[in-house]
Amino acid sequence: MPGRRKWSMDLILREQDVGYDSLQKLPAPPGMRKVAGLERKIESEGGKESSGVAGGGRGPSSRDALALAAKKRARAMAVATGPGKQIAMNAFMMYMSGSNLNIFSISIVSMAIMSPIKGMMNISNAFRAFEDPDGRVDLQMPKLLFLGLNMVWLCVGLYKMAMMRLLPTTSADWSGTVVWKELIETSSIPV
Question: Is position 21 within any domain?
């Protein structure tokens, strides 16, 4: 539309703005002291270090290191939520395979059991690329989420196995382990 004006809004508060003095008198919200301290630390280190050719090749600045750590955290969370996507796909495949015992349904169920077990066994390999020697990247939450989603995936596979009657879930499945009493005496009188 040619006659339409675009509005832009600047949300940065400056000294000449109305209410600047009264906002400066208010206490800082919870957590803002840490943010302000971190910003000061980054700015002070940013003046000392620089990346690229101008810095003499000393390596990335702390701002770049924090950005890299944030990207690693985001990619680790993407890897952690990967099994969640597999759960929906496998659940649909198991639903479509039916509850009859045939090679297709057994292979689908065995994949739904073995894949999460392998995933839980190889959790250190899955997150090795995101580990940071400086300890800036906390991988505890992504690893817990990864384990939790794999457990859900395993439970879906076990549920399907139970519906196919492949798991011993009823008392009739355990009748072979019942120890029968040996009768010492017999009589013709009913008890």
Answer: no
